[in-house]
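Please go through this protein, sequence plus structure tokens, and consider how the sequence yields the tokens. Keep your notes short.
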Amino acid sequence: MPKRRLSGHDATGQAPHEEMAGNPRMMGISSRHFLKLVEDRGVIGFWSMDFETGHINGSVGMYRLLGLPPSTRLTFTELLTMMHPGDRTLNVDMLAVIRSGQPLDRDFRLIRHDRTLRWIESKAEVLVDSEGIPRRALGLFIDVTERHEARVIVEEGWRSYRSLVSAIAAVEWRMSPEGRITSLETWDALTGQTLAEADNWGWVEMVHPDERDAALSLWAECAATRRPYALDLRIRCVDGPYRTYLVRGAPLYNADETLREWICVLVEPAAIGGANEAPPLEDFEGLGVAHIRAARAILNWSIENLSTESGVSVSTIRRIEQSAAMKTRLPHMRALLKALENGGVRFGHGPNRELTISC
């Protein structure tokens, strides 16, 4: 805040109380009315200090904010003793700063006499005499506890989110609504592909050729419907082999419900399932449409039932059951396999590695 002179006049040379007295619309209204209106919110208090005495003279709102009786004599030294020990040493120079004529803008924690802790924002400006010598300080205290607590909640939530993602995800990335990658963490370490190489759909080159079309098709469908997606993909790792990862993605929205971005994770194989997890689909080389129909018959499921349980559309299931080509539909086949197993069907191998179905 700038320094002000003690005269209390504005740029026209007229004192504030004179301006009110000369304005019929302001007759009967004083600065006390405005002060009460502001301070009744309970989060603002005004104060002044004469440098000769060193005493702080406060408004009713200031004493209410500090949790002190209005008759309390207060100095900067006493104010420092009320500060949280962690903030006290950082603000021991407050009096020296304003005595030097500099404005003040500080945040600190205050421990009131009832032992409640409040965050206070302190602002002050210095009044100088006709010779430019600082004589008095004017300031206000603002209770900003809710703002600081909200910030702490956000920070703690972010740290928890980062810890969780780091624990379960091999890769995390974000995409614009159009599919442009805006951030991609640890992908280069997993695949050897840089962000620049992965952008503009370059990441598809790291997906197994048999699953690329299905991945792009599912993304297009989810981008159009804005629903979360999940599928298994074999990713070529930097050390050479393909490994299966669970890919999950979800849309994030702005306050006005417009789509802001997609957030996606690649879950490490060790995090998928448990000790009793069924063998991966690649182990069932003989799995075909006849087995899907047989499994449905065992469970007495219609195509509509299977669609509901698997999340695969009715039309897609019909196309699968009418076709012998499976390689481009591995994500869908995995979803169907999982749904049938959840329903009670068990796929396995017989003595001669033939595919078996049981219930």
About this structure: The radius of gyration is 35 Å. Residues 83 and 204 are 57 Å apart (CA to CA).
